[in-house]
């Protein structure tokens, strides 16, 4: 036993001073799932090493060449366990109407019975790990706590990177401190003598949330968002329910700090749907001299009114679970630097030298690879070498642009809120909402082409309000109402953030992106900050204020005049159809849609009519 283990484990094998409610719950889940043994995780480096060697022995992790990628490993999942399963994700509120029309719902009593049956004996032959964690800096007034039990050492390893996991978090959960219990099993019990597989999982999957009692149960998958329950399940779905009661917002948002050439500092929170550019925007390397962007978070932000009434935000996570494909020196050098050592890669390709590769990592494609399925791969193959949703798991502290205030327990004041999605048409490169309420219309009607981050047809356009469609633990229209109210309170108290919309993904008739994106996105960000500072006039449009002529130096971004015009083209018929679609979308949420949102859509429609 390591020194830390001895310190935290009492004589009866339980951590000393532990909240009895945790011990009782762990005992209950152990009796139900019947694991071979129980390990309380302390979050130490020694424990991480033990987990890694367990995973190596099981064949889950393959060590990469230590000279090329020190401390790093490749995991290949079961080919049917590669993304979030939205069709198997449930919000089991007491009343169906509280889950809203866009969440799957089942009666909580029925779901409890279903899960009790599935979980009975589910951990047989396996170790149950008890994983205490803090979302947010341990001890921050904005932090919230949870305990996950899991029979997957891969999930424990991931939780150790993605959260502040272990003894410190456990010590903070004193009697009376609320904590969220999360039960996870891969659903693959082992009979005595039965040989294990490298990636145990089950065809049957359930990702279940009880928003009122703040509980999470997950069965059958070991993939990221389905299994690392601190992340989407807790920090978004359960947190959206907690935040609604406590007056703060759980958001699928990156968080960045930008400093202009005068040294003025702004903080920006931006909501883009899954695989739509949050990690890249958070790590942006400006192409305009004198500007700096630093990273606070790449996926989740919690926004709460501070003592001065202004909205403050923290990144509740401690790591990045990022999309690999498309990440390269040319697009995201900061991510490439972050990924130099101590990374777990999942479902990327393996080079003959024992390093990783994925589509977009280098311009030159290796002559031979082992693909994400473990098969030989050559450039003439008809399938990608890395799965389109292959990912890296890495500590945020390892990011060279991590901001010095990323762990500020008080959070940072948010100056701008940005919404963005993948839109080949209609939505301009950048625009500013006329008001907080107009900004909330932008958020509520946000749409994007589907990506590989979840099951479903890639490319299909769907509305993804606030980038939270798969992540709201409450009725989506109530989430909008909450944003409206929190913003109105901030406006009165000390000022709400300005709200913007961006679209890096508009395409020309020939199907090519009109905007270079990545580092050049600083041009849009600069205009956003110029608007906040009052140095850009803007011009009116149905989408709010857009850059006036000359306010963005598009030639410096390498964009020709015709493409620049196309990035802001407003086609009356197409926008009328867009407004009709948005109206039908709002109608699908029924009577709970806030009047402000409907009024803003009517206003937008009037502006489209006037085109
Ligand atoms: P999640 O982790 O799923 O929430 O994704 P994310 O929003 O963090 O997306 P990420 O930054 O990982 O980007 C997803 C994909 O979009 C990657 O393949 C990127 O290369 C690509 N991408 C990001 N930013 C841009 C951009 O400005 N332009 C273009 N064309 N592609 C981009
Ligand atoms: C997303 O899908 O938005 C992700 C990956 O960030 S997951 O953690 O699987 O949700
Ligand atoms: Mn995400």
From TrEMBL:
Residues 248-606 form the Phosphoenolpyruvate carboxykinase C-terminal P-loop domain. Its main location: cytoplasm. The active site is at residue 276. It comes from the Bacteria. GO terms for cellular component: cytosol. Keywords: Cytoplasm, Decarboxylase, Gluconeogenesis, GTP-binding, Lyase, Manganese, Metal-binding, Nucleotide-binding. The keyword Aminoacyl-tRNA synthetase does not apply. Mn(2+) binds at residues 232, 252, 299. Its EC number is 4.1.1.32. GTP binds at residues 275-280, 391, 422, 518-521. It catalyses: oxaloacetate + GTP = phosphoenolpyruvate + GDP + CO2. Its cofactor is Mn(2+). Substrate binds at residues 84, 223-225, 274, 389-391. Belongs to the phosphoenolpyruvate carboxykinase [GTP] family. Catalyzes the conversion of oxaloacetate (OAA) to phosphoenolpyruvate (PEP), the rate-limiting step in the metabolic pathway that produces glucose from lactate and other precursors derived from the citric acid cycle. This is Phosphoenolpyruvate carboxykinase [GTP]. It comes from Demequina lignilytica.
